[in-house]
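Reopening this ticket.

The earlier resolution said the output was attached, but the attachment link was broken on my side. Pasting everything inline this time so it's all in one place.
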Amino acid sequence: DPELVDIAEVDHYILWSCQSLSSPWEKVLECGPADIPVRMTKSAGQDHLREGTKGLRASAVLKDGTPLLLPQTGDEPSVWLIVDRSAPDVRWLAPGKDQSVRRNMRDRVALAWELTDASVAGEIKVEWSRDGEQWLEIGTTEAAAGRQSYPWRIPKDLPGQFSLRLTARDLVGHETIAVQPVRLEPGVLLRSEERRVGKEGRSRRSPY
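Inline output:
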């Protein structure tokens, strides 16, 4: 900002990075006025380019050696940068591997999954298929880190064997697809059984 620093008197600039507002600032690099814009590439020892959210801020050193705008812990970054090189990691929780589902009195099943990613955003699409080729949308929900769930009203004509699919997309555009084969148990889960399952957390046979 030319109102804060006399650019003509600047000898060099320093770029700083922090992990959060409570973490200390770490020096990323130094550059002269003629070196701007700066291109950063990932190399050994450059922790500031690891995946995650980074706060960035710049300071200046004048020709007489006077430092200006040195950041202190708790200072707000000038910009937040998200470094993300990998696709989201998403896995089914309910139904999990080798688990089946059974209808309840409302014909609903709570689908659940866990998502991790450096730049969680966008949406999660949930679908089901009879044959693993043609997919029908169950719904979409905003992506968020951690455990998420989605209530699904089971179709009347749901076959005994079917597949569920999650499609997760992050801010960068990386996409991950998780497919889960599922078996539908005959019969209906009674309300008393629902209460028991809720107390036990999640049964292996009826994960909701």
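Reporter confirms the inline version is readable. The helical segments are 191-200. Residues 189-208 have pLDDT under 50 and may be disordered.
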